[in-house]
Amino acid sequence: MLLKKTGLVFLLLFAFKSYGQQVARATDVQIVTTAGTKTVITGGGITFLGTSKWTAIDDSIYLYKNTAASPEGWLDSTTTGVMDVTSTGNVFFQGTNRQSFYGKTRFYDLTIRNTIGDTLLSSCEVRNNLHLDTGFVFTRSGYGNDSLWVSNPAITAIVSTSNNTRSWVNGRLSRTGNVIGSLPTFYLFPVGKTDSLYAPVKLEKANANLATWTVEYFPDTPFNYTNVFLPIDHISRVEYWEMTGNTLSDNNAMVNLSWRGYSRVSSNAAVRDSLVVAQYINRPPFVWDVPGGWLPGRVTGADSLSGYVRSNAFNSFAYPERRFTLGTNSKYNGLPVKLIYFTAIADGNRVRVNWEAANEQDTRLYEVEKSVNARDFTQLTNVASRQMVQSAYVAYDPTPVNGWNYYRLKVIDKSGSFFYSPIRQVKFDKGMEELRIFPNPATTVLNILLPTSYVNQVSLQVYGIDGKLILSLKPSASLVVMNVTPLAAGTYVIQVTRNNGNKESYQFVKQ
Q1: For tag attachment on the chain, is the N or C end more exposed, with fewer CB atoms within 10 Å?
Q2: How far apart are CA 283 and CA 291, in angstroms?
Q3: By the 8 A CB rule, do 205 and 187 touch?
């Protein structure tokens, strides 16, 4: 065994021959094993901190956790079945406890074979093969580019005896590749979250230039999810992936996104075929779109529980365009419920909350939540879902506080999963009433939300910026939906005239 000191830190591994527990800690360490040697610390453990390198060439090290409390440690033992000196360069993490390995570390072969416990890794590199047999790998979140990196460009550099049903990476996984892809030739990224959400990605490389990609899965609402480019009807509300490539080479690849029961894809094959790979790209401006144009029929999978959808063109992986998710042009493809709008307005001595949802067949309940500081929310009321293709709802806050009131919607499905709407705020003065116009700018439809007291008591006139009258009506409901598709792009004025002659004016823009 050759032990090196790097930088200014000395390796404290003097007392191997001892009957007591020996714990050694070191920073910026490189441990190099040579043929026929072993690291033996009887009854003790090693904790690596900082930037450490472990290069295993002709030896194998099996690591067992030996401490329950922080700091984490491992026992490298000669116990039967723990160390196999005849193997070549393979480090095993196995056992029943959680294990942690911090610091920049290099493995030749790495095998994860924990029967119960998880393995925590920081910026580690696997130079040959990564074996994900049993147990889950967690890479640290929020630490820059921390990931588990498989630098071997072979398609088969990641293998699993459990077919990744019992082992995957929770966090960032990086792979290097140079093999031109075309199904069934692809680079598999076995990623997911928790021990029940396996959400793999397959990438098919465009050319033989060496490139490295980093993939991470998030079971959460995608950023700016309502900003979609036609003909996308909506994107997933429950999950997305972040995928980046190194900028020093051509990293273009065809993307294959997976789905699972959590994704709530339609069970109808014809509807399911509307799935596409959506990417948040700079058209400009930034919008969820389908690079390569709309091309259904890229779906593989027998049912709504699992499958893949393939992108229509080779995607780029620049950091600003790192977000990917499932999209559809069908309002009947759940992904899951789609909130068409969610608003809150002052309405006399109360606040009225309105929302409309599509694809709510699997939605069980809507909970309206309120806050006075935009941080701490409590339940105001709940409304049972009608479980229809499309339905509108209304709820009231009978006791708003003077000043700012904040509202959000918690949408809960039959499985107990949920997501939150954007927060709406209302500045309330007793007796105050508001009129809301959305979306503004508008492209096809403009919604005008009126206080209850305005219904059958006001008239609306729409004028062009030149003063020309375009439309006049007397609302008989609190929501007026106006088709603005025939209007030319530009600015328009809505004039509200009450029965007593008072007038209010509002502007909107038609794109």
Answers
A1: C
A2: 10
A3: yes
Cis peptide bond prior to 219, omega within 30° of 0: no
CA dist 419 and 136 (Å) reads 26
Those residues with Cβ within 8 angstroms of residue 9's Cβ, 6 or more apart along the chain or in another chain:
26, 27, 28, 29, 50
> pTM of the prediction?
0.58
Radius of gyration of the chain (CA): 29
202 forms beta bridges with 188, 256
218: helix, strand or coil: strand
Residue pLDDT, tens place only, 52-64 = 444 443 334 444 4
Give the C-alpha separation, 404 to 426, whole Å.
Answer: 6
Could you identify the residue written with the tokens 């069970």? 267
How far apart are alpha carbons 9 and 280 in whole angstroms?
46
CA distances from 450 to 265, 357, 479 (A): 36, 19, 6
How many angstroms separate the CA atoms of 448 and 425, rounded? 17
At 186, the pLDDT band (50, 70, 90 cuts) reads very high
- In the predicted structure, residue 383 carries a pLDDT above the cut 80: yes
Nearest to 61 by CA among 5, 105, 27: 105
d(CA 315, CA 347): 48
For tokens 């995957």, the residue is 168
pLDDT value of position 478: 84
4-40: pLDDT as tens digits: 322 222 222 222 222 222 333 333 334 444 433 333 2
What's residue 145's pLDDT? 62
Bridge pairing between strands 191-193 and 211-218? unpaired
Q: What distance in Å separates the CA atoms of residue 440 and residue 508, rounded to the nearest whole number?
A: 6
Tens of pLDDT, residue by residue over 165-185, are 889 999 999 999 999 988 789
Phi, psi for residue 454 in degrees, rounded to 5: -80, -20
